[in-house]
Design goal:
Blueprint (H helix, E strand, L loop, with lengths): L7 E4 L5 H12 L3 E6 L2 H15 L4 E4 L5 H15 L4 E4 L15 H28 L4 E5 L12 H20 L6 E6 L6 H6 L15 H8 L9 E3 L1
Parallel strand pairs: 1-2, 1-4, 2-3, 4-5, 5-6, 6-7
């Protein structure tokens, strides 16, 4: 039997990179995946790949996570259709640009915080009851080593990931006696568009593909997972 057979999974930032790889892997492991991203064409490509590999279709939800009220609407639609959510993967994130704190544009700062921090808080707020309605709810949020050590020119992104780690771990403490397990996952160096933004001179061929980190996402999503409140490295 597949490791995620019959599970319902919501994955943000699923049109490319790590999100797309996790979506395809979860579908291959038997989950029904609900995929969100801003790029409709990218979502459709992932759905086509899932259909070709498994014969199944994903549920596609074009969504800008900065439209916070729509997060509530999407989660309510999941409730109406499935009555529960087994797996949440908060993968979507933005780097925007790197630069000195004293020169950082306020609008860019706000976009980083909206996507990396506030959207994930809204996801927790909206999905908490649905994840608790599962027999083994699992929530996984993608973090970064930038959260745990200051780096010149990385201030806004590092601050956003540090905030994410703090409130996700606080949430984990609050629900410790439930069937819900919540963890953060640091994928490390991976061949993604964000990595290219941060290190434009780096040879992508020297980096692992997004597929290489999906094992950890499956482990943390399984019913048998006992890890909770941790920062897990892929």
């Amino acid at each position: 039997m597949s490791r995620l057979s019959g599970r319902i999974a919501l994955i943000t930032g699923a049109s490319r990179g790590i999100g797309a790889a996790v979506a395809k892997r979860y579908a291959a492991e038997g989950a029904h995946v609900i995929l969100t991203a801003r790029t409709v064409g990218g979502l459709e490509e992932v759905d086509d790949a899932i259909h070709a590999a498994t014969g199944q279709r994903a549920t596609l939800v074009p969504l800008d996570l900065r439209d916070f009220d729509k997060i509530d609407q999407v989660v309510y639609s999941i409730y109406e259709r499935f009555k529960r959510l087994d797996i949440l993967v908060g993968n979507a994130g933005v780097l925007e640009v790197l630069g000195p704190m004293g020169q950082f544009d306020p609008q860019t700062w706000q976009r980083i915080m909206d996507v990396n921090v506030t959207a994930n808080y809204r996801l927790i707020r909206s999905t908490d009851r649905l994840l608790r309605a599962s027999d083994a709810g699992r929530a996984i949020f993608v973090t970064s080593g930038a959260a745990r050590g200051p780096r010149a020119y990385w201030g806004p992104y590092g601050a956003s990931k540090a905030a994410l780690e703090m409130f996700v771990q606080s949430y984990a403490l609050e629900i410790a006696k439930s069937n819900l397990r919540v963890n953060l996952l640091d994928p490390g160096r991976v061949r993604t568009k964000m990595r290219t933004q941060a290190y434009p001179g780096e040879d992508p061929a020297t980096l692992p593909a997004p597929d290489a980190v999906t094992d950890r996402f499956v482990e943390l999503a399984e019913v048998s997972c006992t890890r909770h409140g941790e920062i897990v490295k892929a």
